[in-house]
Specification:
With 55 residues, the protein is mainly α. Helix content is 16%, strand content 0%.
Length: 55
């Protein structure tokens, strides 16, 4: 839909490959903070735990 001009997409840098397409990556200015909201009692997989620890 973004490629057809129907809107914008927000993603993290280098998460989407834009080579060979009409899409381009632009940084948001001023930089915005990121917040992650989740349930405290949720049990996560090992991969999800590593991801959350990295944040």
């Amino acid at each position: 839909m973004v490629d057809d001009g129907m809107g914008h997409a927000f993603t993290l840098d280098k998460l989407v490959n834009t080579t060979g397409s009409n899409l381009c990556f632009r940084l948001l200015e001023p930089k915005l903070g990121m917040h992650l909201i989740r349930k405290k009692s949720r049990i996560f997989s090992k991969v999800a735990e590593v991801f959350l620890d990295h944040l």
